[in-house]
Specification:
It is a single chain. The termini are far apart. The radius of gyration is 19 Å and the shape is globular. It folds into two domains: 131 residues, 3-Layer(aba) Sandwich (Glutaredoxin), CATH 3.40.30.10; 155 residues, Glutathione S-transferase Yfyf (Class Pi), Chain A, domain 2. 40% of the residues lie in helices and 9% in strands. With 297 residues, it is of the alpha/beta class. Strand 3, helix 1 and strand 4 form a beta-alpha-beta unit. Strands 4-3-7-8 form a four-stranded mixed sheet, sandwiched between helices. The longest helix is centred in the middle third of the chain and has 21 residues. It has ten helices and eight strands.
């Protein structure tokens, strides 16, 4: 399904949901890089008055994501007081038996799921509420769409998903192949970001946001937990500058919760880290000046 300004079907050609103030609700994990994209786009477009949010507990155990609000920053299910996220999926479809993931964009009016695909939700947020008073800014502009789609393709495969392929590998060969691609792509990105401020030039786009939510988790989690330890992001001049550049944009730091991030990964993935011990982790000062605004004008 697709959320559009006028309720017409979106690019998927199926069910159009019309943009209305306070009709939609976002279920997220502050730990999850995919859900994080939607929080950033909500922030950039000023959609807080339009779209309310519930935050799951960072621990994902035998029953999946829970609404236990005992962890600071978790809110519980503010709509239905469910105990588990899977109950929300069953509310939308009593026969549902698929994967239960975040983010979930929920229609409070019809009590159903609009979408659970972050790549689509950020595009909905990009334009659907513009006529209702969303902040200006097009993060998927027509002139750059081909370039953005190309970047998204290989960055998803080798970086966003690549760290997971390395981390969950069960053979040396699978790990070696995955981790090599991660660092090949980071080297390629380092080169691109040495030429201009953002991935497509000097305009922030969804491609930057999609990369960034992986980069911000890389040193605190993926270096140790997923064995992506050839280099840290802080070892790269341009990638580390890019990481700090976006972190320091108004409101972005508010979407980052390292307690949720580190607790989720180190304590939820028992096959990788059976003791649940949280590593001390390399320290980063994301408020350190980045200079990319001056460097690229």
């Amino acid at each position: 399904n697709w959320l559009t300004a006028d309720g017409a079907p979106g690019p998927t050609g199926t069910g159009g949901f019309i943009a209305e103030k306070d009709r939609y609700h976002l279920y997220v994990s502050l730990a999850c890089p995919w859900a994080h994209r939607t929080l950033i786009m909500r922030k950039l477009k000023g959609l807080e008055p339009f779209i309310s949010v519930s935050v799951v507990n960072p621990l994902m155990l035998e029953n999946g994501w829970t609404f236990d609000d005992s962890f600071p920053g978790a809110t519980g299910d503010t709509l239905y007081q469910h105990e588990f996220l899977y109950q929300l999926y069953l509310r939308a479809d009593p026969h549902y038996s698929g994967r239960v993931t975040v983010p979930v964009l929920w229609d409070k009016k019809n009590h159903t799921i609009v979408s659970n695909e972050s790549a689509e939700i950020i595009r909905m947020f990009n334009t659907a509420f513009d006529a209702l008073g969303a902040k200006a800014g097009d993060y998927y502009p027509p002139a750059l769409q081909t370039k953005i789609d190309e970047l998204n393709g290989w960055i998803y495969d080798t970086v966003n998903n690549g760290v997971y392929k390395a981390g969950f590998a069960t053979s040396q060969q699978a790990y070696d192949e995955a981790v090599e691609k991660v660092f090949e792509s980071l080297a390629r990105l380092e080169q691109i970001l040495g030429q201009h401020r953002y991935l497509t030039g000097n305009q922030l786009t969804e491609a930057d946001i999609r990369l960034w939510t992986t980069l911000v988790r890389f040193d605190p989690v993926y270096v140790t937990h997923f064995k992506c330890d050839k280099h840290r992001i802080s070892d790269y001049l341009n990638l580390y500058g890019f990481l700090r550049d976006i972190y320091q944009m108004p409101g972005i730091a508010e979407t980052v919760n390292f307690d949720h991030i580190r607790n989720h990964y180190f304590r939820s993935h028992k096959t990788i880290n059976p003791t649940g011990i949280i590593s001390i982790g390399p320290w980063q000062d994301l408020d350190e000046p980045h200079g990319r605004d001056v460097r690229f004008g």
